Amino acid sequence: GWTTWKPLWMCGYGLSDSTVGIIGLGRIGQAIARRLKPFGVKKFLYTGSGPKPESAAEFDAEFVPLTRLAEESDFIVVTCALTPATQGMCNKAFFGRMKKTSVFVNTSRGAVVNQDDLYNALAHGQIAAAGLDVTTPEPLPTDHPLLSLKNCVILPHVGSATYATRSTMAVLA
């Protein structure tokens, strides 16, 4: 599809002046917020099992219910653990609360997301885009509907794919 330049080709939404919602402000959620802050994020919201005022202070992040996070965030990043409480929590109702211009990113576990509901939200323009580093199953079958969407990028669970990280993992194991 690469042709001559077009004014709006390959355009997306920027982080500057945005609201970023983080589901799970643990070690990974904090690391993501730390990396996004310099891009001019206006506001950080987070949700999880409970408020973490010490962790949130660094980003001036506000603890909110999941419904408010979905409604107000321009970008949503999922970094929570997979538990009975989080399994399938990103579902039709959740995506229905998101803005049409919102971008959804899941780096936690595939089962936190109802993938059929995500597909429908993306295919019908209910949300703008999604980036997934995790799916259920992994890898997705080559004929999975999510792989047919132009507004969904799926990586093969490579969040730890650096030589240093894999070496550290080996030492820890």
UniProtKB/TrEMBL annotation:
Q: Does the keyword Oxidoreductase apply?
A: yes
Q: Which Pfam families match?
A: 2-Hacid_dh_C
Query: According to the lineage, what is the superkingdom?
Result: Eukaryota
Using the record's annotation, list all stretches that form the D-isomer specific 2-hydroxyacid dehydrogenase NAD-binding domain: 5-159
Its keywords, alphabetically, are:
Oxidoreductase, Pyruvate
Q: Name one GO molecular function term.
A: hydroxypyruvate reductase (NADH) activity
What PANTHER family does the entry give?
A: 2-HYDROXYACID DEHYDROGENASE-RELATED, GLYOXYLATE REDUCTASE_HYDROXYPYRUVATE REDUCTASE
GO CC terms of this entry: cytosol
User: What is this protein called in UniProt?
Assistant: Glyoxylate reductase/hydroxypyruvate reductase
